[in-house]
Request: fold
Amino acid sequence: MGGGLHEDDDLVESHEINVTPFIDVMLVLLIIFMVAAPLATVDINVDLPASRGAASTRPDQPVWLTLAPDLTLSLGDVPVAPDALPAALETATGGDRQARIFLRADRSVSYGDVMTVMNRLSDAGWTRIALVGLDQAGADR
Reply:
């Protein structure tokens, strides 16, 4: 009886981490993200012709704007400086800002350069722009 060792009264310390609350929080977050992810997608309508579909009707005298691999612009067969593009479009369309501009760009031209030309067209007042690609049958040959 002597002394004062009370080993049976001491609490045993546990050094293990209880991960159950952590797993519960992670499952709740997973469910929240699974529900929120489809709502976060953006649906953007783009006026582009389908490459495999039937060809869209074109006017009798379409206005072709071509962006070459060296980033030079041509309106029809006539080379046009970027600064002179609004005046050339005004002449080609007869001042009709609702005329559709058919934009062709070489495959090697970057997306940013095509967007720069489209922004120039939009700034000049022509917002109806059609991007032109090869028909699937023509591309296979």
Q: What stands out?
A: DSSP finds four helices and five strands in the chain. Confidence is low (pLDDT under 50) at residues 46-50.
